[in-house]
Amino acid sequence: MTTIPQLPAAGPINPASDLIPISQSGVTYATTASAIAQAVLSLMPVPIPFSYTFGLLLPGQALFNVTPGVACSIPAGFAGSTAICGGAPTNALSLPIIVGGTLTAQGTITGGTQVGTVNYAAGATMGTFALTNPPAITATTTIGIEMTSGGDATFANPAITLLLNRAG
Prior knowledge:
Elements: E1 19-24, E2 27-32, H1 33-43, E3 45-51, E4 62-66, E5 72-73, E6 82-87, E7 93-99, E8 102-103, E9 109-110, E10 113-120, E11 128-131, E12 136-137, E13 143-146, E14 156-166
Antiparallel strand pairs: 1-2, 3-14, 4-13, 5-12, 5-14, 6-14, 7-10, 7-13, 8-9, 10-11
């Protein structure tokens, strides 16, 4: 039988070296607090929130183009992501979600690959998501959303949060 070291009775815990006993199905394992924290962190989603509250959007204008900072994947159908707006569009509206694009000085996104859309029905203030081409996303890959080239005279103040999964 293996003896598992006990945590120190007093004093600070060294998360990198002090072992913590964990039991599962009658078997006891020992791990460090650092290993537990890393495992928990790897399961946490990566939210990319964006809120545009300055009124109407210009045709082709980028809402945002950011990097997540960690490797990610897109969950099926952008599960957990949200999209609302303060001013509902007059006509149905589909905003492209672009991965790997570059933000220009004119405020548009060039290059990259469209991987899905944020869709608002005519008169709706809540959007839905469609995923068409899910890529692997590195820590430095850009993710952006832009207004359609035609624009909409009443669509205003969108607030969109993309929820991604940490890779690994």
